[in-house]
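Re: that chain you flagged

S.,

Sorry for the slow reply, it's been a week of failed gels. I finally had a moment to sit down with the sequence you sent. For the record, here it is as I used it:
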Amino acid sequence: MTLKYIEKILRAKVYDVAEESPLDFALVLSERINNQVFLKREDLQPVFSFKLRGAYNKIASLTEQERSHGVIAASAGNHAQGVALSAKKLGIKSLIVMPKTTPEIKVNSVRARGAKVILFGDAFDDAYAHAKTLAKEKKMTFVHPYDDPEVIAGQGTVAMEILRQKTDAIEAIFVPVGGGGLIAGIAVYAKFVRPDIKIIGVEPDDSNCLQQALKACKRVTLKQVGLFADGVAVRQIGKEPFRLARSLVDEVMTVSTDEICAAIKDIFDDTRSVPEPAGALAIAGLKKYVEREKISDKALVAIESGANINFDRLRYVAERAQVGEHREILLAVKIPERPGSFLAFCKFLGKRSITEFNYRYFDDSSAQIFVGITSSGDINDKVDIIGQLEGQGFIVTDMTHNDLAKEHIRYMVGGHAPCELNEITYSLQFPERPGALLRFLTSLGSQWNISLFHYRNHGSAFGRVLIGVQIAAPQKIALQLCFEALGFRYTEETNNPAYQLFSGGQG
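Prediction finished late last night. Pasting the structure tokens below so you have them in one place:
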């Protein structure tokens, strides 16, 4: 059976429409993890994903009679675009069933490539069932995204290129896993030509259908899957991919959302390209593997499988990437409620940069702050910081891996104070550089009590702070003179309706 797949891969017609993608050396990441990291750039395909290979190979294999009836597929993304472009190239009509929840940008992209689109159901499973029904009614050929020998063979050409592009030693190839078509095709070819190369699958920890199937020794259906890496959000591994993976895949790893976001940043740093979450899975797994195995000076290949990311997700990715690479520590810290407490806390942290500082006055006894602190990237750095803070008498709760804190609470810290505070609020802007926040607090000293504080480093040239100060009206001018002496731009926000409605003190 393996020989039949090798023949199919060698005869695959993918290059009528797909391109041989480069195998790029990731210099920055390689130096950081002390291994040779290579990226197989499937994000550079005409539809920005490897899916084009399998879709075209399947459609090109159809008989003239099958072609005359057209092809149909169910997909919310990359497979849809691959089928649409392949059918257009071969002059075949195509119909794509997509969930009603599919982003408009993806629907328009499929239509632009010549396919007719039907929006049906709220989830992929609904669209899939409807597409299968339509395929029978219209006698169209259903092009499965992964559970088809021709599709698997088309994806296998990725491995053929890798082994042609890098003929010397390769320790492992890391492959993102959704339905399993890509890893099945790569494993078949790589293990036949170079059985010494490890084939390692990588899945999100909330969508690990292959890992669960291998553990159970049979295909299982996940009750639900995470949607962040939507390109691999599959509830059950394909039947044929699973049959191949059981004997050919060495290991399947899982990674967290934070680790995926960090991998997106790693790829951007090396290539200036932005992969989709599923496209960065392999790099996330590669990094985790290196950390676990303590290996060095090995050649490691990761499949950058796609770059169809929605622009509006980039802010979320940037937020989570810092935690994913152990460069941001999130803590809840209890400090005394008195003038100068913020300053004392920041002085204790020294030259460490503060990435976030959230606080709202509650009572006269103590203050609960939510703080983000930059880290060296050493996983032990957090332990040291927490130990030092607790040694100074601060009560510390680690929020770094608390999803509720990262997803919601960090943006909700604040609200109305429980009493009237005689508070004046200002928004300020100052040059963003190490120590800028400490310099700002030092300039205020301990003469005024800070009752509201929000700061977040957004990676821009200027830091922005919202600050509330308990102050008597005659001292207002002195406070403003302090701002001006520092050269900070400031605007009083006390009468801003956003502040009054959501943060102002309540009498």
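What I noticed first: Residues 356 and 456 are 4 Å apart (CA to CA).

Talk soon,
D.
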